[in-house]
Design a protein that fits this description.
alpha/beta; Rossmann fold; OB fold (Dihydrolipoamide Acetyltransferase, E2P); 5-stranded antiparallel beta sheet; 7 helices; 29% helix
Length: 250
Amino acid sequence: MTMRTLSVLAVDDEPPALDELVYSLQQCGDVGRVTPAGNATEALRHLEQESFDAVFLDIVMPGLDGLELARVLGRFAQPPAVVFVTAHEQYAVAAFGVRAVDYVLKPFDIPRLAASLERVRAHFAGAPEQVEDDDLPTLAAELPGRTVLIDRADVAWIEAAGDYVRVHTTDDRSYLVRIPLTMLADRWERYGFARIHRSYVVALRAVRELCTQDGQTTVLAGGRQLPVSRRHLREFRDQLLHGRSGADKP
């Protein structure tokens, strides 16, 4: 059965960037209509006149910025899927706080936008994004103009960032990766990773000390002091004592 094509609103205040976004979206096979808008006000005018499946928008714009526009869209009776397309990595956590479907860093390519459109379809279908490799020995982090592959053995600790995680490596670097923390914690538990808090997972091999003071427990991992919640403390202690054998070797 042939899938229906998607209607997309593209929003960017810089004309060359808007032209590139519109052209690139038009090259994706499942897009039927791409409407350009040079700012949030123009975008809202289009949204009042017609419906769209998705809005691909920049974040830093004069007047109403992309995050503010996304909050307005969230109040629609049938809101379109929101995909941010930006040169700024630091807004990712805020972006997923407004329920963005994806966060694309500039410069992008057509396959990257096509992947975002698949996430738009999955969003409306209610289907979870699939990860092909159950073990996930490496994670892919997208940076402007390049993709960095992160080896599981190089990861010290991980923190939640909406639908993404921020992965901290043993060489004091950090990368934003699109995968929920719960999914990653489940898949990596057998390799010596432990959930210590609703927002944190640590590699057991990176743990240097566990400290309890004034009723608060923290762990030193990868040079960072991280909180351990009471809910996870007992299991984490057991993993520290008995669970290192499954850890990846550095």
